[in-house]
Task: inverse folding
């Protein structure tokens, strides 16, 4: 570390480290103590930037800091009043603008009455094209650098029921004779072990059956990840990175809004889409129609027809987690 | 007496402290206005399919414009056939039939009017209602398609259900679906690989 700072400072004769050099330059430019202080507290990330750019971005940085400070003191989303929720959402929309330059629309739609979401996956039909995985990553603003994916698509030998023998990293033409494809994601259990394990109540089951995470209430202990028998939860080991032009601006507070380092995230059945009557991104992207999504309380829905007329099974049914995600065959 | 009150008070406090689960909040019910419904049907140029015992379903028109067979195949006339070509398909050189062994053009198309389809069960199916024709042999798939276990839904989970026709996904002359390359796997970093 010491060697690094020496290298950085080597280009400037008047000062020792890059931070001091930066403060010096800011002083000359602005001629005020306040500007220099602001530039100093701008942190090491901006230290290498030129003073002109730094002066313009300090305002943004200050605002971002204010927003982040407010974030620390914000309340639990479930106990907020509607006004508090609206204010919080407005703050995150502003954060998106300042931090990423994206005009995000963050939705706060609650569960719709008489709705309980369920999912069915046809293992006879899935061809393993992995289009669902791709659509999910794009829709939900997942970190592009760590390769985080909510969906795992296993290529499995015919007759083998356990995903432990499955291959998720195949790169040949699909489908292969003698193999079948089985996708897993968060199953949105009716009796979810993850929500019970959470010490802060940051994850809970919504009235329409979606298990969600309040990213600002999550302390990153990963108990939920350990509790989930389906390996459905993903942890942000680092600050998620999504190129600004690839950020999906249609977001939901409990869904695909930008996460930060050290919080848990997972599939939300595309809450930002499904609460508006659309299909989840994976189901829409599926080229074969192997993915069926619908309302379990609607007797005319496709999913109810499947449950009544097809042979269905769920994974690890003996655990009593009651996942709302069924597999079926033709 | 005092002691009893104290126990009651502690009990009430504990009860209040334990019932932390906040009341669920709901938004307005999701409605699909008649206008949206009609708009979706118009957009997909969808036609209703009504089969008893199934929920209402609409079938979307095909993406490609169907050829007007009557342009060459005049009604009542035998179409020209060159027997040296397989199935006499000289004008349809790009059609390869890979379906149930030795089927030929007129196994499915009517000789007099190829826009019409013939089937083992007599149904007046056309190219737009090909599902009736396909369904006359593939009964299980037809039932699944009507119920929702087979086929591709084009609309959201709520409201009008518009699905693709059989020929929207399957090439009618070679219905088995081919192979494709999967979408590339995003890169895996060392720290992620370590976890598995």
Result:
């Amino acid at each position: 570390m010491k060697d690094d700072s020496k290298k950085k400072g080597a280009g400037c004769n008047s000062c020792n480290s890059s931070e001091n050099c930066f403060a010096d330059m800011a002083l000359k430019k602005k001629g005020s103590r306040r500007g220099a202080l602001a530039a100093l507290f701008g942190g090491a990330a901006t230290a290498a930037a030129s003073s002109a750019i730094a002066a313009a971005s300090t305002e943004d940085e200050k605002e971002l800091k204010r927003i982040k400070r407010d974030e620390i003191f914000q309340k639990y989303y479930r106990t907020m009043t509607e006004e508090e929720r609206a204010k919080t959402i407005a703050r995150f929309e502003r954060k998106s603008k300042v931090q990423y330059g994206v005009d995000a629309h963050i939705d706060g739609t609650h569960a719709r009455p008489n709705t309980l979401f369920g999912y069915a996956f046809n293992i006879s039909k899935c061809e393993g094209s992995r289009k669902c995985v791709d659509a999910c990553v794009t829709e939900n603003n997942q970190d592009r650098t760590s390769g985080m994916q909510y969906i795992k698509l296993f290529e499995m030998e015919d007759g083998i029921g356990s995903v432990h023998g499955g291959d998720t990293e195949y790169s040949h033409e699909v489908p292969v004779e003698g193999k079948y494809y089985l996708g897993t994601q968060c199953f949105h259990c009716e009796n979810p072990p993850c929500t019970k394990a959470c010490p802060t109540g940051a994850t809970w089951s919504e009235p329409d059956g979606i298990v969600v995470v309040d990213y600002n209430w999550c302390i990153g202990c990963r108990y939920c990840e350990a509790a989930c028998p389906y390996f459905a939860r993903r942890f942000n080991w680092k600050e998620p990175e999504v190129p600004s032009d690839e950020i999906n601006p249609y977001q939901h507070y409990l869904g695909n809004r930008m996460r930060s380092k050290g919080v848990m995230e997972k599939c939300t059945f595309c809450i930002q889409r499904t609460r508006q009557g659309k299909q989840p991104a994976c189901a829409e992207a599926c080229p074969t129609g192997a993915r069926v999504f619908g309302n379990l309380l609607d007797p005319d829905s496709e999913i109810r027809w499947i449950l009544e007329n097809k042979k269905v099974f769920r994974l690890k049914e003996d655990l009593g987690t009651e996942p709302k995600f069924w597999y079926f065959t033709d | 007496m005092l002691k009893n009150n104290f126990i009651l008070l502690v009990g009430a406090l504990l009860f209040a402290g334990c019932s932390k689960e906040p009341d669920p909040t709901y938004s307005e019910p999701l409605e699909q206005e008649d206008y949206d419904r009609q708009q979706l049907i118009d957009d997909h140029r969808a036609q209703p399919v009504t089969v008893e015992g199934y929920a209402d379903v609409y079938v979307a028109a095909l993406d490609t414009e169907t050829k007007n067979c009557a342009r060459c195949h005049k009604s009542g006339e035998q179409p020209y056939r060159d027997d040296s070509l397989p199935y006499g398909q000289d004008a349809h050189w790009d059609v390869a039939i890979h379906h149930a062994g030795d089927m030929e053009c007129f196994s499915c198309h009517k000789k007099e009017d190829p826009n019409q389809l013939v089937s083992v069960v007599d149904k007046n199916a056309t190219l737009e209602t090909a599902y009736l024709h396909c369904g006359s042999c593939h009964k299980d798939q037809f039932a699944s398609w009507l119920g929702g276990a087979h086929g591709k839904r084009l609309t959201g989970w709520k409201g009008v259900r518009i699905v693709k026709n059989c020929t929207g996904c399957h090439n009618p002359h070679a219905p088995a679906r081919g192979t494709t390359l999967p979408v590339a796997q995003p890169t895996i970093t060392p720290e992620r690989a370590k976890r598995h």
The helical segments of chain B are 2-18, 34-43, 105-108, 130-135, 139-147, 166-169, 190-194. The mean pLDDT of chain B is 79.
